[in-house]
């Protein structure tokens, strides 16, 4: 576990996608809202900038597709772990087309790409929480049992547990990994319930950090060799109380990113990128090699 | 019944030795004769011999061997007492067995009656003389000096012999037959006596080689295991174990504390050495050799897909294997594709993977084999299925699940998805009943009550197996020290299976103390090529001094080989059920329970709200009140076959664990203590409270129409019998249950265990005004029973029924002979009642019904059903009569098939059933036949650590009197260690204390012990 944990949060690449103008009107959303596409693009630009410069990732930006209003939320199109990428079958039919570009991008990165072809299966990447040691798959409006089974079949090394998502769009709409063994979770009842289930299902122990706002629990944790723990979170403007909680994290570098426009269409921070650790493909398993070198 | 068995044996002998062929009709006639005789005899001699028998019984229980002989002789008499039930049972059995050949049946019956009347006395005398003679001459006695368990077994053997002798005599009717029998018997006996039988064991080692060694036939698992470890030079052995394949091709762990022979239940002395407990952190192991062996196991696990892992992980693990086995990658050498193929690294190994393996292998340059192993383990241990032992199961809705037992607890999978997890600390109790497996969950923070989650396993065997694995895993990983054997825990009867080895904590400590230079060992990658997974070499059994004449053995061998044949019925269990009443209810209740239980798939989360496992059995009362055919039918539906065999108390201890399923047969031993109290209220109306504790669970619900039919037949006679016999009460219960309470207290977790399965003891007290706990009962239970003139209640009798599904039940002692017989397959009921003289009239009945169905022959039955109904009954006694019931079920019915059958698989189950009934005097002749009007009935079930107590309270209006009867059934399950007497005394005492205003009218102790196979 140690090596897995040590590698947790290490990334080399990120895949993102541009925001189509159709996002404003056609993107799916749980409640009606007016989206300022220009503002959204501005936020997205900043978001990519953080990935590129602050996290030092090689960012692959896929062009926006006007016919795919939700295409900016690339997370739902693929689940990447190690050198294996599972191309999902998004639960929303209008989003199925998003996987094509994602697949090509992942193949270009030499990933071991597996496609979910079962027509009975649906899976959104937003429902997949990888803790570094196991998967939790939220069973939501977008993800079903069959989808979870396929994911389990693809990532055989890991335990895959299912968690009912009673509220919100995705499992990660109210939680995310805040570091190795640390789960950030919202304070709502459904969120807490889900956390309990996850804790019960797991052989591993997770610390939890509860933030008042569910959506504020969606952060991006990155572990940089030279900078240590970094957490990309929503701005204080959006969730001031939650930020106070996050600020309790010791030895963390907190980075705020505005996500206001995208949240109107249920977009959280993690939704906008697929993070990949190319180096980790195999090295994940190889613990310090020095001990036996001559 | 015993006589019947013997007849079978004789038949076999004849067939084998003399080549004389017996016609089925002949057999049948013989059987019937025997039965009749026994009945008549019993009646006559009952009173006279009662006293003697009692004494004898006591002696038996006390392990006295010599005393057995007389009892056996007398057994037929005891049967006579219960003649009606026995006849019925027999007839039922016959019907079943004869089903295929109706003609034969008709013949036999007629003949039986006539002959029996005439020759009863003669036969008896002959039989007795015979038995005596044989007993004396037999070597078995000589052996008596051996250990007590052995003694008991031997004595049993002797008994069997005697029986045979009797049967022979009976057959002849004229007495000329006796000579034959003696001839037949003598050679066999002589052969048997030679001891020190050595058996060659083959143990498949992890490196693909086989280790062969000789062990004594009676050796315990431990002995062989240590030999293997010695051969491997392994010190950290606690993580490992030996497995064998049972008759259902299921891998089972060899219990180190029990005799091998009793576990394997076949002549297949093949084992494999495997990792039993996967160390969560292999780096903590002390020695490289231990890690190496663990690696070998894991390589196999990975290659077979048992330990699933991704492509990359396959490649990585394979590369470490290469490094460990072949050292550094050598670019000069051609790629060792050969050996990589041999290594069989992944289930789906392909070129791409091999490329990857080589690529990774290169990166391991300089790594020593030990380092490579360490890296292998470091990666393997992270796999989610590392160390998870999967067992297929279903939730209450029949959804397929997998239950995974591991170091941390119990995991529930649906397909590959984990849908629930129960960590050990969350689990309060682990139990199983029949094919149901239950865990009681500690209430969560927000929950108030404990909840029970139930799963359905394929059959009772798998449920028990899962339970055992859970007990062992919990003990190993969670306890500091193995739980001490639960000694004399009140009401702890039956199998008390516990983990007997060292716990992880202990073995770690021990490992740290290992002080030896790390042993050098050879890595033998090349060896593994030789072994093919299924092509295990045939077992060679060499009994040095074994007689080929010992039919039982040979047959078994044959059977084993046959086991693979498609004809065999796999997964069928034979349950011996004693009391049908309870069973019926049970089934219902269980179903209900299951319904209540949240379906795992649906309620993934809300698992915990399932109702408790042990449902009350209210129907028993119904049956009592109105023994309608309908109820009988119900019973029949349940197909539980119990094979109880009477064993000496001493034998019980050793035999409890032997339940390993015979090929197709399962043996259940249960101990149930039933205390019935009947008390009259001071009210004008007469109130009778019968405290009866029938806790026993439902039979297995694998109902098949065919079986049902058979059962019906059997049932009908039973009821008739009950009607006739007012005072006769027999209750039998069959259950497979076990409970384990994994209480983890601080560092030391002491799980409480409750098991019901292997033994049944029932005590019924009827109409007893006074009870003295100090009075010694058979089991040395101090119980005095005084007749209460006031008692209104009569007990019904529930006859025990045994249904063997394609299985044969036998007594351990009689295994050999029985085995033969069974193979030949004739229905032969054996009765071996023993009577103990009581100051008052004591009645003892032992009824053993043997019903054999040939699977092939009787397509209707599917060849699975065997019905044996022993009906132990009681009659008023101030002192407890002891009934020893032996049941033998034989699966084959036709003599014609004798030879063929012999070679086929015959599942044999040995059980010993002892029923002791104490009854107070009956006031009136009212039998249960008069149901009265049921006013209220309620059932309360309570469970304590080691007991399940079911209390039925019924109020009935009988002729203007209101009668309250409390029936308590206390089921005590445990292995040998339990002090049953103590438990019984306690139970009775408690019952009395709880209902001071009531009188105990009947105590029935029914004890069932599973007998391990006797080697001889």
From TrEMBL, chain A:
Q: Which family does it belong to?
A: Belongs to the DDAH family.
Provide GO CC annotations from the record: mitochondrion
Q: Which protein are we looking at?
A: Dimethylarginine dimethylaminohydrolase 1
A GO BP entry is: positive regulation of nitric oxide biosynthetic process
Question: What SUPFAM superfamilies does UniProt report for this protein, alphabetically?
Answer: Pentein (SSF55909)
- The active site annotation covers 170, 271
Q: Which residues bind substrate?
A: 28, 70, 75-76, 95, 142, 265
Alphabetically, the GO molecular function entries are: amino acid binding; dimethylargininase activity
| Annotated InterPro entries | DDAH-like
The organism named in the record is Cynoglossus semilaevis (Tongue sole)
Q: Pfam families this protein is in? A: DDAH_eukar (PF19420)
Q: Which UniProt keywords apply?
A: Hydrolase
From TrEMBL, chain B:
Source domain of life:
Eukaryota
Tell me which species this is from.
Answer: Cynoglossus semilaevis
Composition bias (Polar residues) maps to 616-629
Q: Where are the coiled-coil regions?
A: none
Q: Which SMART domains match?
A: B41, FA, FERM_C
Q: Where is the composition biased (Low complexity)?
A: 717-731
The keyword Ribosomal protein is assigned to this record: no
For the FERM domain, which residue ranges apply? 199-481
Q: Return the Acidic residues bias intervals.
A: 754-763
Annotated segments matching region Disordered: 1-181, 608-629, 643-665, 697-769, 794-833
Q: What is this protein called?
A: Erythrocyte membrane protein band 4.1 like 2
């Amino acid at each position: 576990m140690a090596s897995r944990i040590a590698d947790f949060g290490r990334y080399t690449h990120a895949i993102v996608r541009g925001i189509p103008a159709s996002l404003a009107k056609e993107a799916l959303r749980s409640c009606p809202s007016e989206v300022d596409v220009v503002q959204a693009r501005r936020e997205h630009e900043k978001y990519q900038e953080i990935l590129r410069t602050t996290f030092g990732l090689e960012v692959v930006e896929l062009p926006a597709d006007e016919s795919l209003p939700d295409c900016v939320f690339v997370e739902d199109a693929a689940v990447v772990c190690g050198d294996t990428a599972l191309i999902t079958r998004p639960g929303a039919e209008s989003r199925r087309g998003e996987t094509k570009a994602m697949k090509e991008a992942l193949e270009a990165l030499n990933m071991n790409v597996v496609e979910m072809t079962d027509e009975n299966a649906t899976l959104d990447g937003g429902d997949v929480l990888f803790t570094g040691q196991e998967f939790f798959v939220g069973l939501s409006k977008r993800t079903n049992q069959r989808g979870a089974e396929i994911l389990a079949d693809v990532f055989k090394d890991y335990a895959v547990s299912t968690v009912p998502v009673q509220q919100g769009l995705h499992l990660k709409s109210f939680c995310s990994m805040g570091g190795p063994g640390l789960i950030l979770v919202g304070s709502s009842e459904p969120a807490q319930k889900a956390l309990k289930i996850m804790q019960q299902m797991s052989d591993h122990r997770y610390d939890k950090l509860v933030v008042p706002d569910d959506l504020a629990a969606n952060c991006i944790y990155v572990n940089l060799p030279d900078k240590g723990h970094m957490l990309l979170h929503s701005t204080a403007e959006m969730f001031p109380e939650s930020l106070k909680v996050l600020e309790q994290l010791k030895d963390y570098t907190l980075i705020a990113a505005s996500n206001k426009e995208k949240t109107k269409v249920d977009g959280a921070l993690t939704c906008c990128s697929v993070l990949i650790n190319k180096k980790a493909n195999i090295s994940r398993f190889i613990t310090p090699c020095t001990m036996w070198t001559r | 019944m015993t006589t019947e068995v013997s007849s079978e044996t004789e038949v076999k002998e004849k067939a084998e030795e003399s080549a004389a062929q017996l016609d089925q009709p002949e057999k049948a006639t013989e059987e019937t004769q025997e039965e009749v005789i026994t009945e008549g005899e019993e009646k006559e001699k009952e009173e006279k011999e009662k006293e003697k028998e009692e004494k004898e019984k006591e002696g038996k229980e006390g392990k006295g061997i010599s005393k057995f002989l007389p009892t056996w002789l007398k057994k037929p008499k005891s049967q006579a007492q219960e003649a009606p039930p026995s006849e019925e049972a027999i007839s039922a059995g016959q019907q079943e067995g004869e089903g295929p050949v109706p003609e034969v049946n008709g013949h036999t019956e007629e003949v039986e009656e006539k002959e029996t009347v005439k020759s009863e006395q003669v036969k008896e005398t002959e039989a007795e003389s015979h038995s005596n003679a044989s007993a004396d001459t037999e070597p078995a006695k000589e052996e008596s000096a051996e250990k007590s368990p052995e003694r008991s077994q031997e004595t049993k053997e002797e008994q069997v012999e005697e029986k045979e002798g009797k049967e022979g005599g009976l057959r002849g009717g004229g007495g000329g037959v006796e000579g034959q029998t003696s001839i037949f018997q003598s050679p066999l006996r002589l052969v048997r006596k030679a001891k020190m039988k050595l058996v060659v064991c083959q143990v498949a080692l992890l490196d693909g080689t086989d280790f062969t060694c000789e062990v004594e036939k009676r050796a315990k698992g431990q002995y062989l295991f240590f030999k293997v470890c010695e051969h491997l030079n392994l010190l950290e052995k606690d993580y490992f174990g030996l497995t064998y394949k049972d008759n259902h091709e299921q891998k089972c762990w060899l219990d180190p504390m029990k005799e091998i022979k009793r576990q394997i239940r076949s002549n297949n002395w093949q084992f494999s050495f495997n990792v039993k407990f996967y160390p969560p952190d292999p780096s903590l192991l002390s020695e490289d050799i231990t890690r190496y062996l663990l690696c070998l196991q894991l390589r196999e696990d990975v290659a077979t897909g048992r330990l699933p892992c991704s492509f990359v992980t396959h490649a990585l693990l394979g590369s470490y294997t290469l490094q460990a086995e072949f050292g550094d990658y050598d670019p000069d050498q051609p790629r060792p594709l050969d050996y990589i193929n041999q290594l069989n690294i992944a289930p789906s190994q392909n070129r791409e993977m091999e490329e990857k393996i080589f690529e990774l292998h290169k990166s391991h340059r300089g790594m020593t084999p030990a380092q490579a192993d360490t890296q292998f383990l470091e990666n393997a241990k992270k796999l989610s299925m590392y160390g998870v032992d999967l067992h297929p199961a279903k939730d209450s809705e029949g959804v397929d699940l997998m239950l995974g037992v591991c170091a941390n607890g119990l995991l529930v999978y649906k397909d590959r998805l984990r849908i629930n997890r129960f960590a050990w600390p969350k689990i309060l109790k682990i139990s199983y009943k029949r094919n149901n497996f239950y865990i009681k969950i500690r209430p969560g923070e927000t929950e108030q009550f404990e909840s029970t989650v139930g799963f359905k396993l394929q059959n009772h065997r798998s449920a028990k197996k899962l339970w055992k694995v859970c007990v062992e895993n919990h003990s190993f990983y969670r306890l500091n020290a193995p739980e001490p054997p639960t000694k004399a825990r009140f009401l702890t009867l039956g199998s008390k299976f516990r983990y007997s080895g060292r716990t992880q904590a202990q073995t770690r400590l021990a490992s740290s103390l290992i002080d030896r230079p790390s042993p050098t060992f050879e890595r033998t990658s090349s060896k593994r090529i030789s072994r093919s997974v299924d092509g295990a070499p045939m077992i060679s059994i060499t009994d040095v001094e074994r007689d080929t004449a010992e039919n039982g053995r040979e047959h078994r061998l044959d059977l084993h080989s046959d086991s693979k044949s498609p004809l065999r019925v796999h997964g069928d269990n034979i349950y011996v059920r004693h009391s049908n009443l309870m069973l019926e209810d049970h089934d219902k209740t269980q179903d209900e329970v299951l319904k209540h239980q949240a379906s795992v798939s649906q309620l993934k989360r809300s698992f915990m709200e399932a109702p408790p496992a042990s449902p009350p059995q209210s129907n028993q009362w119904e049956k009592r009140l109105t023994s309608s055919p309908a109820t009988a039918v119900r019973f029949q539906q349940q197909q539980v076959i119990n094979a109880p065999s009477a064993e000496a108390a001493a034998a019980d201890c050793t035999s409890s664990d032997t339940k390993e399923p015979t090929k197709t047969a399962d043996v259940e031993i249960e101990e149930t203590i039933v205390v019935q109290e009947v008390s009259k209220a001071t009210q004008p109306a007469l109130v009778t409270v019968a405290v009866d504790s029938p806790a026993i669970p439902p039979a297995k619900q694998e109902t098949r129409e065919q079986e049902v039919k058979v059962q019906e037949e059997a049932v009908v006679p039973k009821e008739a019998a009950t009607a006739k016999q007012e005072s006769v009460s027999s209750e039998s219960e069959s259950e497979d249950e076990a409970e384990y309470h994994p209480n983890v207290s601080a560092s030391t977790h002491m799980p409480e265990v409750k098991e019901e399965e292997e033994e049944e003891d029932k005590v019924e007290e009827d109409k007893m005004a006074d009870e003295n706990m100090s009075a010694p009962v058979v089991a040395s239970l101090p119980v005095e029973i005084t007749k209460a003139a006031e008692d209104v209640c009569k007990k019904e009798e529930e006859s025990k029924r045994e249904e063997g599904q394609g299985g044969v039940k036998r007594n351990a002692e009689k295994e050999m002979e029985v085995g033969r017989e069974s193979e030949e397959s004739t229905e032969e009921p054996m009765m071996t009642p023993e009577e103990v003289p009581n100051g008052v009239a004591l009645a003892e009945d032992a009824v053993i019904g043997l019903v054999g169905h040939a699977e092939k022959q009787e397509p209707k039955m599917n060849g699975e059903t065997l019905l044996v109904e022993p009906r132990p009954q009681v009659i008023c006694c101030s002192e407890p009569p002891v009934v020893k019931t032996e049941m033998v079920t034989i699966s084959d019915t036709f003599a014609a098939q004798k030879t063929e059958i012999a070679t086929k698989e015959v599942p044999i189950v040995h059980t010993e059933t002892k029923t002791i009934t104490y009854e107070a005097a009956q006031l009136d002749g009212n039998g249960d036949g008069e149901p009265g009007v049921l006013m209220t009935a309620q059932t309360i079930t309570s469970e304590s650590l080691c007991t399940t107590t079911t209390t039925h309270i019924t109020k009935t209006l009988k002729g203007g009197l209101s009668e309250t009867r409390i029936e308590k059934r206390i089921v005590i399950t445990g292995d040998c260690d339990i002090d049953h007497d103590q438990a019984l005394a306690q139970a009775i005492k408690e019952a009395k204390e709880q209902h001071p205003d009531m009188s105990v009218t009947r105590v029935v102790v029914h004890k069932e012990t599973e007998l391990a196979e006797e080697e001889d």
